[in-house]
Amino acid sequence: MLDRRLITSLHVQTMRRAQLHPEHEPHVLFQASTIAAMVEGAYEGDVSFAELAEHGDFGIGTLNSLDGEMIALDGRFHRADADGHAAEVDAGELTPFAVMAWFEPSLDFGLMECLDRDALLAEVDRRVPPGTESCAIRVDGDFESMRARSIPRQSPPYRPLIEVLADQHVFELGAISGTMVGFRFPDYSEGLEVSGYHFHFISADRTRGGHVLGCRSAGVRVRVDFSNDLHVELPPGVDLAGAEVSESTSAALQRAQNRG
Description:
Elements: H1 4-8, E1 12-15, E2 28-32, H2 35-39, E3 47-48, H3 49-52, E4 58-62, E5 69-73, E6 76-80, E7 86-88, E8 94-95, E9 98-101, E10 107-116, H4 117-127, E11 134-150, H5 161-165, E12 169-172, E13 176-185, E14 196-203, E15 209-227, E16 229-233, H6 247-258
Parallel strand pairs: 1-16, 2-16
Antiparallel strand pairs: 2-9, 3-8, 4-5, 4-9, 5-6, 6-7, 10-15, 11-12, 11-13, 11-15, 13-14, 14-15
């Protein structure tokens, strides 16, 4: 079963497709489906990007059939393909998994020194107030290096996510300016989400991007939006009570998220 703190501390509210309605609540996260459903190969969604735009202007996710990495920034949706090339997403496309927020940061600071991914995120951890269960994070600026990945479009019958991640495409974007878009979730959210940090990147000219595996900043601005509320849309056949992953699967997801 899911940790009770997931319901109490994170204030999780679930809804079905018929209950979806436009919402513009600050500091509330919206999620389409669960990572546990993705682990099992649920790569077809029923939420369009037009509908997703009603729940936030900032976020990350993917497209149906795991067709690339999605980055939502300033109200526009972008897809980074298997080679890291980015383009805008058509409003009629569907997503099987996404996390969104109306980005209204409560914390804003600069980091002018050169920092690798772990050191950068340690600076975020140091500044986030105790008791903050989850948050949306935007990092804008220059990077000496950016290591990213994306996943090729899959075809039915869909394989489990762990098998698909073994075929991910990893690429170096080099010295680049742009934005890291991401979220931090608590450890006990594993299964509903991938716990810890999850970032996607989009270049300043919106032509390159992907899931962030590693980076080295060279002067960035960091903004953080704190949230303890999460609204989850559950597609047909997906239930919050089934949002569980094994320890081995969780460990494999963390490796894929952070190191490729």
